[in-house]
Amino acid sequence: MALEVAFIGVSSAYPGDGEESTCFLVNGDILVDVGFNAGISVQALGITPTDIDHIFITHCHHDHVIGLPGVLFLNSKRAAEGRDAGPLHLYGPQDLTPVMSAALALLQADRYPQVVPDHEIHHVYPDESISIGDLRVDVGRAFHPLDARSYRFTDTVTRGSVVITGDTAYHEGLAAFAKDCDVLIHEAAAPPTASGINQRYLHSRPQDAARVAQESSASSLALVHYQADQAAAMLSRAREAFPNTRVARKGQRVKVLGPGQAAWV
Fold it and tell me: Is 206 within 8 Å of 234 (Cβ atoms)?
């Protein structure tokens, strides 16, 4: 089976009509970040919310966790499907615990426990690895105003790999973490015209993402977390340093069949 990433959303923290904030689905059952309407948006890709068995959170800024109550609510029917689903596993920095508590409070889980699936929270740290079937998930560091993670997904059979940076400013460790990956999915929330890194927000410009792709010898680069009206300028600037760059779009999928073998749908 190929390693597959579906782009549920690619937008900025303030998505427009028909858009979704940045979140991804890996191999049909692993959700990476939880956009505004992620529980509904995955259904447009043919995925039932109860299919989600794992949720990885890069960091707990609002646009990356705001849809968590809805996903929990829709996922609560997992046990009724008759499959041995087990608990829903959630992974992320320590901020995930208070965010999860807030989501449970919003769902009134103490009064209506049936609207929340059985779940387990796992705090993960850079240099750790998690095994999920044939996937190895390596945890990396992101450079952002709060505790943040990057994730590398590797199919241990085909050796294909995808790195999702989360929100981060450029740092040398990210290029090492993404070394020789097949698809680098990198945020580009800072405008290409910015003169440098804004130390208050710590986001990447498209040229910063291209630098990481170049230094890591990634096979390809997909830009996400952007304003729609910036897409053309963003792509042009990134391709100056890394020609094999694309702007990812909501609803797209990429399949990695093996090293250097990425097919976009």
Answer: yes
> CB-hemisphere CA count at 13 Å for 182?
23
What is the tens place of the pLDDT at every residue in 185-216? 999 999 999 988 888 999 999 999 999 999 99
Q: Rounded CA gap, 96 and 122, in Å? A: 9
Distance CA 257, CA 16 (A): 33
The number of folded domains in the chain is 1
DSSP designation for 226: B
Tell me, what CATH number does 82's domain have? 3.60.15.10
In this structure, is residue 28 part of a structural domain? yes
pTM: 0.97
Residue with tokens 């997992």: 78
Which tokens hold the place of 13? 């923290």
Is 90 exceeded by the pLDDT of residue 101? yes
- Which residues form the domain of 222? 3-249
